[in-house]
Amino acid sequence: MATTFTHPKYEIPITLPEGLSEKQVLEFHPFTSWLSTLQASLALQRSNPSHPFHSDPYILRGITIQSYDLFGPRVGFLKLTSNITTSSSSSPEGGKKAEHLPGAVFLRGPSVAMLVILIPDDNLTDGDGSQSEYVEGKKKKKGNEPAKDKEEEERYVLLTVQPRIAAGSLEFVELPAGMVDEAGNFSGTAAREIQEELGLEIPASELVCLSDLAFGVSSTSSRQSSGTTSTTEKEEEICKDGNLPRGVYPSPGACDEYIPIFMHERRVPRDQLGEWTGRLTGLREEGEKITLKLVKMGDLWKEAGRDAKALSAIALWEGLRREGKI
Description:
Layout: E1 3-6, E2 13-16, H1 22-26, H2 29-47, E3 58-71, E4 74-86, E5 100-101, E6 104-107, E7 111-120, E8 132-135, E9 138-141, E10 145-146, E11 156-164, E12 169-174, E13 177-179, H3 186-198, E14 208-209, H4 210-214, H5 231-241, E15 261-268, E16 280-281, E17 290-296, H6 300-303, H7 308-322
Parallel strand pairs: 2-3, 7-15
Antiparallel strand pairs: 1-2, 3-4, 4-5, 4-6, 7-11, 7-13, 8-9, 9-10, 11-12, 11-17, 14-15, 16-17
């Protein structure tokens, strides 16, 4: 039998299916994060006179949770509908009829994606035939002059090939990715997934968050949450978009998932490159059956053309390089 409780902060009715408790819902971080972000966006309608819905703002009237999946004792996924309408009267006497927004949502929380770039360690020859060396992580010509950057054929990217039943595929090619832990540690999750899926041990401190850099935030200042900013930055972001997290939303029409994209670039012996292709990885006890694939950076757009994470990573990487941020 369905039950209903009133949210303690927002005072809206939330209807639950049989077997799901109020405590489980309020402890499910993707739900609380989605609800607070939505309420911040709704509040902008009233506080910002230039908002397109300022004259007749939308209001969240209630939430009905239709189904859920448990990961052990805790909630893993939620499917819900939200009732969001304008304040206009729906009666003939009230004039304008109330309008509503589509409110079906699948809640699963954020993930992280990793762009791992490998460069052959003998890649020190520039296009003009001169030799280069690396000084403090930057490529320099011998003599400490800036080197001409070689084309992307000497950069390689590690991809995973694995079953993705939601896509109807047993061999889906994509960037390595993983769900964020309950603590919300984005960089830590990325480092763990790189080790589990790629077999590489990379300290979280050596990962660069391309999503943070794209929003003008230093990657080193926000490795923990990929969404934490200073008070001034936060106020500016709220005015623009309701303080949405910094990440790629692959399906915002129906799902809350957002994906910050991290990058790691390292030099490896050329004869070691082939060792990654075809390697079997993943946690078999958790149903992960992953095969690695190594592709040229210049071919990533077509080798992983069905993966939104890969295409987003390419756009971020190329854009940040044009602006000299990486």
